[in-house]
Amino acid sequence: MVASFDTHLFWEALSSRPYWHGALLAFELTCATLGAASVLAFFLALGALSKSRPLRGAVLVYNWLFRAIPTLLLLLFVWNGLPQLWGVFTGNWYTAFLAAFIALSLNEAAYMSEIIRAGLMSVDPGQELAGRALGMTRARILRRVVVPQAIRIIIPPTANEFITLLKLTSLASVISLYELLGAATVRANQNFAFLEAYSAAAVYYLGIVSVLMLLQAQLERRFTWRSGARRRRLAPAPAMSSHEAR
Amino acid sequence: MNEALLRADGVSKSYDGLDVLHGVTFEVGRGEVKVVIGPSGSGKSTLLRCLALLEPVDAGEVWLDGVRLSGVREKELAQHRSEVGMVFQRFNLFQNMTALANVMCGLVEVRRLKKAEARERALEFLARVGLRDKANSYPDELSGGQQQRVAIARALVMRPKAMLFDEPTSALDVELVREVLDVMENLARDGMTMVVVSHELRFAHHVASSILMMDEGRIIEEAPPEQFFSSPSHERTKRFLALVE
Q1: Record: contact B120-A244, CB cut-off 8 A
Q2: Whose CB has fewer CB within 10 Å in chain A, the N or C terminal residue?
Q3: Over 90: is that where the pLDDT of A230 sits?
Q4: What ranges do the domains of chain B cover?
């Protein structure tokens, strides 16, 4: 048989509205999820590192629960189960996007909390000690000293999580959210041009991940503390005079 | 005699059932320099951390400038900590900040100074330790001696009532020790109240008002340098001095 890749069908798929929409949806869902999950995970990580036993226990239970439950099951539970549990979730406002966002965020927060915890623990305890000796409060030390240094450690695994999440969003097609892979499947089933339909989808995934990797490199540079490696956030001190407007 | 500026009164401290300090009583008067020596594990660093209000004491009291600070709650303690400067063996400069930002940090975050004013003062103190031209370098780009001088500037800029040094030169290469000791000697000459844990005996000889020997969580001897070195009264001190020299 002759190779039968039809470039015309490929371009058609690539430039079609459902693809563009699907990709945008997948990207938005990934960003929203990772954002919400990171915030939740930050507090989970603080809980895991706190002196309070009950708090540590609560975080342990959360992480155990949401790492054990398969993402797909959680997705179906949140979409189909929650409305049966609480009437409020039967309203029109409860969209598939929202359900996917909730399910993926709950799931992702458990993973991110471990990443953030590892990041916070990687910061030399001497940094906090020095902050305390200066008279800084714990919250300020966390914000000005510990978190910025932890971020450097957290960036690479978080980029991994972003990519994993991007792919996980395709699960949302089971709750009728037509993201990228959903759009590709629909198209392939219409004209049986599987090769072209899936290749076009792959191009979008490649595109999104490329952008992410550029962003990652940029962020990593920003969180490296050598004067040559990054743009300074503080304006450089004047060579001799001590006048400074800022 | 005037009242002690910084005083530990019968301070005991243990970690996980291990007694590190046994009812240590110690004081340093305004403008005095006390050098603490002793074998590792004798409680020198712990004593310093108690004086810096970084560790709650199990028993006894810590007084700063006539105010009793042991038992004060964490929130208020933070403010008092800024009245005592602390310099660590491993410098502990904030890795994510330039030398200038390190020195500014306490002024901005604790003293709530405006950035411009903090910056001016920070530059002034960097100049005092001879590092005005390194203001924009990150700790990673500085030598150990330079880092320690920045750390001293970071503590000094808060205008502390006393400065505590925890083995400030023992993490340094030999040729970098001098520059740090010079800064400390200048400080002492300017009348700063200092407690220094260090085995730099020459420094102790030159600068100290008195030298203390610690062993097994107790201060076993205190004397002015001349007397301390020429005729130590304690057998343990003699053996230790023989080892250090």
Answers
A1: yes
A2: N
A3: no
A4: 4-83+163-244, 95-159
The residues facing B11 across adjacent strands are: B24
In single-letter form, the type of residue at position A22 comes to: G
Domain B4-83+163-244 listed as CATH 3.40.50.300: yes
A67: amino acid identity, one letter: R
Q: How far is B228 from chain A (nearest CA, A)?
A: 31
pLDDT of residue A190: 86
Kindly list the residues from chain A whose CB atom is less than 8 angstroms away from the CB atom of residue B141.
226-227
CATH code of the domain made up of A7-84+94-222: 1.10.3720.10
| CA-wise closest residue to A14 among A133, A184, A177, A186 | A184
With 60 as the cut, is the pLDDT of residue A242 above it? Answer: no
pLDDT score for A184:
84
Task: State how far the Cα of B244 lies from the Cα of B200, in Å rounded to an integer.
Answer: 9
- Least confident segment among B114-118, B140-144, B240-244: B240-244
Q: Where are the alpha helices (DSSP H) in chain A?
A: 7-14, 17-49, 53-68, 71-76, 82-85, 96-122, 125-134, 138-141, 147-168, 180-191, 194-222
Nearest residue to B32 via CA among B213, B241, B212, B177: B212
Minimal C-alpha gap between B226 and chain A (Å): 33
Interatomic CA distance for residues B9 and B27, integer angstroms: 8
Between CA A123 and CA B95 the distance in angstroms is 10
Torsion of CA B113, B117, B123, B124, to 10 degrees: -100
Q: How far apart are the first and last CA of chain B?
A: 34
